[in-house]
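chain below, 134 aa
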Amino acid sequence: MAEQLRIEVQRSDEDIESLTREVDTLRRDLLELDVDKVERPEAGPAPPGSRAGSLELANELLVTLPAALTLLKEVVTVVGNWRSRASSPSGVTLKIGDHRLSLTDMDDAEQRRLIDAWLRAASAGNGTPEVKGG
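prediction:
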């Protein structure tokens, strides 16, 4: 059975076009991995009279991973590399099952420690469900 990882990007500015471009870049980076798919989750139905059937969330991606979660570490690495290239500072939250990892500005050693703890817990399916940094 495939696993779904939700990635949410938090930004301090309100430039939706820039955010959309940056999240699209992250999506393309993730599609280079052997993930099943990367898509924007739906925010709900579009307003009556609009052309779209549903609205997509501009700041989120839903990544479908193979059941074994073997790609989870690679996905986290891609997200970290993307964060370092982003034009404006972004916090990123990754959630798989009950396991949530929040990455904000922090030193590299602390970030690595949090990521390693989250990967162990998410891969085992138990342990500390929420890991925050920043």
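The helical segments are 16-31, 72-85, 108-124. The beta strands are 3-11, 37-39, 42-45, 54-56, 60-65, 90-96, 99-103, 130-132.
thats it, cya
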